[in-house]
Design brief:
247 residues; mainly beta; 12-stranded antiparallel beta sheet; two-stranded antiparallel sheet
Length: 247
């Protein structure tokens, strides 16, 4: 059994905080709005032989070192490797997360699948479902909100130093509680469905140096993206470049 005590990154999600470990320069909606980033508490991991491993933890509130109520949250993971080229991860967290409220839970189920059909090609999928019972959508008194997300990834290594990665994502913020975006006219739409697709080219310049060039297109069913010249729009396009030195 392996124990971890202190502050650590979450078990949930296909993307991580450390940029070199991700396939794209930008992060997904699910990374930013669906799951936590860090926890403070204790984790215990147990190997399941060639099948995989299991992890269970007791942690404080999302992103906080000190808890904001008297309840703790349970964090868990099951990693399965039924085949050499296939990895399946089932992650979850449940617990009260509102300040001073120890009874109403926030729950997230996070599923990740990684499949490598060839030496050059790697495929990945990530699905999230979240629910919080203590939060009421704006303008209503009935508590209970949900959010759902799905992201599909593909990365192809053309050479040992050059790869191309794509991501398509759909994120549904049913009650606009996770994102909280405003829209045209300054109003707050009750429900927002987002989609984005991203293409990232990566070059390994030296042993510890990576360079990336990325194009990303976001669109939504509400006018929530602000343009300096046109005001609010239902879409946006971005181009980004980065250089990473990792050690």
């Amino acid at each position: 059994i392996d124990f971890k005590v202190g502050k650590f990154v979450t078990l949930l999600g296909a993307e991580v905080i450390e940029s070199p470990a991700n396939w794209n320069f930008s992060r997904s909606y699910m990374f930013g709005f669906s799951i936590p980033f860090t926890h403070t508490g204790v984790l215990a991991s147990y190997p399941l032989g060639e099948l995989g491993s299991a992890t269970l933890g007791v942690v404080n509130a999302w992103e906080r070192v000190d808890d904001n109520n008297k309840a703790k949250s349970l964090l868990g993971n099951i990693t399965l490797t039924p085949f050499d080229n296939l990895t399946l991860l089932v992650n979850g967290i449940t617990g009260a997360e509102q300040a001073g409220d120890s009874n109403d839970d926030r729950n997230v189920i996070d599923l990740v699948a990684i499949y490598q059909p060839t030496e050059q090609l790697t495929l990945m999928a990530n699905y999230d479902y979240g629910h919080e019972s203590a939060v009421a959508p704006a303008g209503t008194s009935e508590a209970g909100v949900d959010w759902t997300g799905l992201a599909l990834y593909a990365k192809y290594d053309f050479t040992p130093t050059w790869s191309l990665a794509g991501r398509w994502e759909w994120f549904s913020d049913n009650d606009n509680v996770r994102t909280g975006f405003t829209s045209f006219g300054g109003g707050t739409p009750p429900d927002i469905d987002f989609q984005e697709w991203t293409l990232t080219s990566q070059w390994k310049l030296y042993e510890h140096v990576l360079a990336r060039l990325e194009y990303r297109h976001d669109f939504a069913d509400q006018r929530v993206f602000f343009h300096d010249t046109d005001g609010f729009s239902s879409y946006q396009d971005t181009v980004a470049a980065e250089v990473i030195y990792h050690f």
